[in-house]
């Protein structure tokens, strides 16, 4: 596979206290999620406590989660490498903008496909509900009638046993429910980050109003 250049890190929300808070006021607790909340088909949304530039401002779709570790793909970092240049047979199924997304720092030469379709079948491995892993060595024409949209990722994000749980305990990730349209969204960077958080309720919803560029803090 052609090397996929990383996109600029999306902006991140500020960590400063909210302006105008009365002295001594206690903010409501903000529950970001626990490792027990993580499952295939959930989203991991990067929080300011996450210092790794590979994941700053990212939204990660969890593909697999088990005692042996966790695997996901970053949804909001499109590259400039077009799918038609590397996997021409799959280009007609890919949603706009028709490019590889930088799925994560692990095995960046490996391509993973996620398709949204109502039913599984040959060449599809169900992740959750309408989202399926696609066998990119298979026949794309055979899947065409069933597939509503395809997104292809270069590389993936991976955590060893206990690693993700430790990061979540430090407040590095929020775990929220995913929608199939998140996988196919044309929004990139902070746009998808904010959209996912805007649909949250309670104290967590306030995160969506933040400015994510740390230089503006």
UniProtKB/TrEMBL annotation:
Pfam families: DUF179. Gene3D superfamilies: VC0467-like. Residues 1-25 are annotated as: Disordered. Residues 15-25 have a biased composition (Low complexity). One of its GO terms (cellular component) is cytosol. InterPro entries: AlgH-like. Belongs to the UPF0301 (AlgH) family. This is Putative transcriptional regulator. The lineage of its organism: Bacteria, Bacillati, Actinomycetota, Actinomycetes, Geodermatophilales.
